[in-house]
């Protein structure tokens, strides 16, 4: 089952799909509503699954990137322990150097 597309192309499409899902999750708080949106996103990707013309694929991907950039959430969710999260570097370990003597 060989594919006519390179692995880089597949990785780009997977990355775009995941970014769409994450953006939808940023806009939707309730998981059941997000699931409906995720199904719509999956259907949109499935509609273009069998397109083989490289120019058409490039146009579809460019339009998808533009739509994603246009509707990006202004304040996306950041997990607390990730860089930029509320607990990032909160409890740093103490430095491992000798303390300076007190005078």
TrEMBL record:
InterPro entries for the chain: Complex1_LYR_dom, Complex1_LYR_NDUFB9_LYRM3, NDUFB9
Q: Known Pfam families for this protein?
A: Complex1_LYR (PF05347)
One cellular component term (GO) for this entry is:
mitochondrial inner membrane
Keywords assigned: Acetylation, Electron transport, Membrane, Mitochondrion, Mitochondrion inner membrane, Phosphoprotein, Respiratory chain, Transport
Q: Where in the cell is it found?
A: Mitochondrion inner membrane
* Record-level GO BP terms: mitochondrial electron transport, NADH to ubiquinone
Q: Which residues form a coiled coil?
A: none
Q: Where is the Complex 1 LYR protein domain?
A: 12-69
Chief location: mitochondrion
Question: Acetylation: present as a keyword of the record?
Answer: yes
Instruction: Supply the CDD domains for this chain.
Output: Complex1_LYR_NDUFB9_LYRM3
What is the membrane topology here?
Peripheral membrane protein
Subunit record text: Mammalian complex I is composed of 45 different subunits.
Q: What does this protein do?
A: Accessory subunit of the mitochondrial membrane respiratory chain NADH dehydrogenase (Complex I), that is believed to be not involved in catalysis. Complex I functions in the transfer of electrons from NADH to the respiratory chain. The immediate electron acceptor for the enzyme is believed to be ubiquinone.
Q: Which PANTHER family match?
A: NADH DEHYDROGENASE [UBIQUINONE] 1 BETA SUBCOMPLEX SUBUNIT 9 (PTHR12868:SF0), NADH-UBIQUINONE OXIDOREDUCTASE B22 SUBUNIT (PTHR12868)
Family membership: Belongs to the complex I LYR family.
* Name this protein carries in UniProt: NADH dehydrogenase [ubiquinone] 1 beta subcomplex subunit 9
Q: What does UniProt list as this organism's lineage?
A: Eukaryota, Fungi, Dikarya, Basidiomycota, Agaricomycotina
């Amino acid at each position: 089952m060989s594919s006519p597309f390179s692995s880089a192309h597949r990785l780009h499409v997977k990355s775009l799909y995941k970014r769409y899902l994450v953006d939808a999750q940023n806009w939707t708080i309730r998981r059941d509503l997000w699931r409906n949106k995720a199904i719509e996103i999956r259907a949109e990707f499935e509609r273009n699954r069998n397109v083989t013309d490289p120019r058409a694929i490039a146009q579809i991907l460019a339009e998808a990137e533009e739509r994603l950039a246009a509707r990006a959430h202004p304040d996306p969710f950041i997990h607390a322990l990730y860089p930029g999260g509320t607990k990032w570097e909160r409890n740093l370990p103490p430095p491992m150097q000798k303390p300076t003597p007190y005078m």
